[in-house]
Model the fold of this input.
Amino acid sequence: MEETITYTFSKEHTHCDEIFAKAENSVAKKQWTVADTEFNDFHTAMEKHFTAEEEILFSAFEERTGQTMGPTQMMRMEHQQMRQIFAQMQTSLAERDDEQYLGLSETLLMLMQQHNMKEEQMLYPMIDQVFGAEATSILERIRAI
Done:
């Protein structure tokens, strides 16, 4: 099977969602030490994912198509929104405020679901179409970071 951007990045979304759910569950149970570790794992995975998209995937797409004001710009803005929520979640974790964390978690979940759907159903397939077999070399560059 030929590796695609859609397949690879959708799989990453699932991986991040799983860690996110674990952290949320630990906060709900007030297992703070475990929640700290899981949230940190989630945050690290998301930043790695965002960096791969912003610095390699989106840049390559923009360079190839000349589209800098389109879907990639919107995705970058949504990444920033999520980063702001991560920071607030980090604070609520540090303060052991489960209610605030779980409220932020709900907001983030909705944002992530909508964001991932746009990427998985529109942007990634568009990128796969633009790059075709070259998608493999983009994925290799991403793995190298």
In short: The chain has a mean pLDDT of 95. Residues 3 and 136 are 6 Å apart (CA to CA). The chain has five helices and no strands.
